[in-house]
Write a structure and sequence with these properties.
The chain has 2 domains: 153 residues, no CATH class; 141 residues. Helices cover 58% and strands 0% of the residues. It has 16 helices and no strands. It is elongated. It starts with 40 loop residues before the first helix and ends in a 16-residue tail after the last helix. Belongs to the bystin family. One of its GO terms (biological process) is rRNA processing. It comes from Sinocyclocheilus grahami (Dianchi golden-line fish).
């Protein structure tokens, strides 16, 4: 793969008068208000049109643990009938008592020190089982922030990814759905989770996109983290590559646009995948949301000097099939005003797994 530097500092702000522009911008006070946003009902309706009509069931830590318990019970029954007659070791009753006590503390926690028994959970081999005893679904938002701080610092990336996906993400989605905003402590937890960016993308952003049920409000709140925080290019590039290869839903356009707006030096492999993503809509007869057109505009503005003449021609053909009265002319102008890249002179620098 080849690496290049973007050359255009142009901004989509020139299209500020377009109605739906707010769909991609979190309010300036989002961080202070815990990610609170207002969304346009028409924007929300446009997003819903592209949602997965048969979404997969959401899985939480409780679901995983119950599956493991069922498997263990089946395994124990087999072992007892075949061999020693001894059941597999269970948690010590004293351990159960301690962590049920921890659960009560976390369900009322506001500030201050956490129980030491909770802090050692990341070091346990059966940390998921022990964490389950603390009933994460009953934690206060402040407790969830403290837990995220501890787990993001002390768990390995793969384990942190599971915590983000099975505990943090369901809580965030439930909070946004219920209150139409995100609690300040949960917003802080979402931000703190970026301490491990790979786990953040694999445990939060990508599963959210893959679900096909990400709402406009969820996309704006979580997208504000992308805008406000520094994220290594390798992780962002890999995320864009994955999103570009997914089945389309409107929220994906928001995340792509925000990642493109970070002005990374993208590998050509990622840029080509993004172009392929947009070009697949040449035969799509659906009316695409304005979010899709905005993300395409951002791609062209940021990386127009790095497109080949063939790619530019393909995009111009795309504009004949997918048109927005105000945005498409701007995209066309950007494409026609830029020089094409010379692939033969490009130097290989970086690859993305």
């Amino acid at each position: 793969c080849l690496c290049h530097k973007f050359s255009d500092a142009g901004s989509a702000d020139s299209l500020r008068p377009i109605r739906d522009q707010q769909s991609l911008h979190v309010t300036d006070a989002a961080e202070e208000t815990g990610g609170e946003v207002d969304v346009d009902p028409e924007d929300e309706k446009a997003i819903e049109m592209f949602m997965n009509k048969n979404p997969p069931l959401r899985r939480t830590l409780a679901d995983i643990i119950m599956e493991k318990i069922t498997e263990k019970q089946t395994e124990v029954g087999t072992v007892m009938s075949e061999a020693s007659g001894r059941a597999a070791p269970q948690l010590d009753p004293r351990v159960l008592e301690v962590y049920r006590g921890v659960s009560k503390v976390l369900s009322k926690y506001r500030s201050g020190k956490l129980p030491k028994a909770f802090k050692i959970i990341p070091a346990l081999s059966n940390w998921e089982q022990v964490l389950y005893l603390t009933e994460p679904e009953t934690w206060t938002a402040a407790a969830m922030y403290q837990a995220t701080r501890i787990f993001s610092s002390n768990l390995k990336e793969r384990m942190a990814q599971r915590f983000y996906n099975l505990v943090l993400l369901p809580r965030i989605r439930d909070d946004i759905a219920e209150f139409k905003r995100l609690n300040f402590h949960l917003y802080s937890a979402l931000k703190k989770a970026l301490f491990k960016p790979g786990a953040w993308f694999k445990g939060i952003l990508l599963p959210l996109c893959e679900s096909g049920t990400c709402t406009l409000r969820e996309a704006i709140v979580i997208g504000s983290i992308i805008t406000r925080c520094s994220i290594p290019v390798l992780h962002s590039s890999a995320a864009m590559l994955k999103i570009a290869e997914m089945e389309y839903n409107g929220a994906n356009s928001i995340f792509l646009r925000l990642l493109l707006d970070k002005k990374y030096a993208l590998p050509f492999r990622v840029l080509d995948a993004l172009l392929a993503h947009f070009l697949t809509f040449r035969a799509d007869r659906r009316t695409l949301p304005v979010l899709w057109h905005q993300s395409l505009l951002t791609l062209v503005q940021r990386y127009k000097a790095d497109l080949s003449s063939e790619q530019k021609e393909a995009l111009l053909e795309l504009l004949k099939c997918q048109t927005h009265a105000q945005i498409s002319p701007e995209i066309r102008r950007e494409l026609q005003s830029a020089e094409s890249r010379d692939l033969e002179d490009a130097t290989p620098v970086m690859t993305v797994d």
